[in-house]
Amino acid sequence: METGILLQSGTGEVEVLHFKVGGQSYAINVIKVKELWKLKNLSKIPNAPSSVAGVTLNRGEMIPIVDLRYVLDRNPRTDAIGSMILLCEFNKLKVGFAIDTVSRIYKIGWNKITKPDSVSENSLVIGNIDLDGNIVMLLDFEKIVMDINPKSGIHESMAAEIVQKDRSHYKIMVVDDSTTVRNVILSTLTKAGVKNIKLFENGQSAFEFLEEMAELKGSNFTSEVNLVITDIEMPVLDGHALTKRIKEHKILKNLPVVIFSSLITDTLRHKGESVGADAQLSKPEIVNLLGEVDALLKK
């Protein structure tokens, strides 16, 4: 498979870093990884969860270190010093993950990543990847952190202050491979007064629906959908590629697209801008999401 730095957005490709923990192969989306280093110092945290090895200093910042060996195998490290650390940023948090070894970076198509057939909501696997004949599991690092600290991610209580009003003319598509996230967005929009909501678990099925509506109704496709909310990281077709296809379509091009993802950071925002996203928000910002929807549909 091809390696290198993937600079363009919307190509339908993703770069993943292949690494091992306890002899098992795993992967992470490269854009989540800010740095990779060997752990030299660690301070224990009193009464911390067993999955948290401690905290360390990195460039003047206090970084919590999660022991992936414990998370995945319930086999804690006796000493995390010397472990390789993946420093990640998502949901406006920086977290270090202790792993064993790093292999290499692979560039693959999202359509080559298959979602496990029997994934439960508690699974830590986003999808399975065939790398040179070996099955590698793409991990859900956001869920790992949310399981440790539920307040770090999206949850329905964030929308407690939403006031319902007449949004019955809104026709919204929600595209996200996480059942939990889809349900939170559905609940939030419903509470806000939105009555017409369509749910999709990947960009491919969403775009096929949009293409069908464009073919059947032409510019009147807006009678079925007038705004799309999409995640970025999804098997089959990711959110950047979905956005690009919409914005390059001769009929669909004016359809507003809001990217709602844990991967929205100041350093990665340009990726959504390059494919024509109308707005981008990090997943904890569920209330701000509604504000963006209101602003776009009042234009």
Notes on the protein architecture:
The structure is a single chain. The chain has 299 residues and is of the alpha/beta class. The protein has helices at residues 68-73, 141-148, 179-192, 203-217, 239-248, 269-274, 286-297; strands at residues 13-21, 24-29, 33-38, 52-58, 61-67, 84-90, 93-99, 101-109, 113-114, 125-131, 134-139, 171-175, 196-200, 227-230, 257-260, 279-281. Helix 4 (203-217) packs parallel to helix 5 (239-248). The relative contact order is 0.14. Mean pLDDT is 88; it is low at 1-7.
Terminal-residue CA separation: 45 Å
Order of helices and strands: EEEEEHEEEEEEHEHEHEHEHEH
The SS-based structural class is alpha/beta
What is the strand arrangement across the widest sheet?
Answer: 8-1-2-11-10-9
Unreliable stretches, pLDDT < 50, 5 or more residues? 1-7
Any descriptors?
299 residues, alpha/beta, six-stranded mixed beta sheet, five-stranded mixed beta sheet, 7 helices, 24% helix, disordered N terminus
Question: Can I get a quick summary?
Answer:
By secondary structure, this protein is α/β, with parallel strands linked by helices. The chain has seven helices and 16 strands.
Ordered list of secondary-structure elements with their pairings:
Blueprint: E1 13-21, E2 24-29, E3 33-38, E4 52-58, E5 61-67, H1 68-73, E6 84-90, E7 93-99, E8 101-109, E9 113-114, E10 125-131, E11 134-139, H2 141-148, E12 171-175, H3 179-192, E13 196-200, H4 203-217, E14 227-230, H5 239-248, E15 257-260, H6 269-274, E16 279-281, H7 286-297
Parallel strand pairs: 2-11, 5-7, 12-13, 12-14, 14-15, 15-16
Antiparallel strand pairs: 1-2, 1-8, 3-6, 4-5, 6-7, 9-10, 10-11
Helix pairs in contact: 4-5
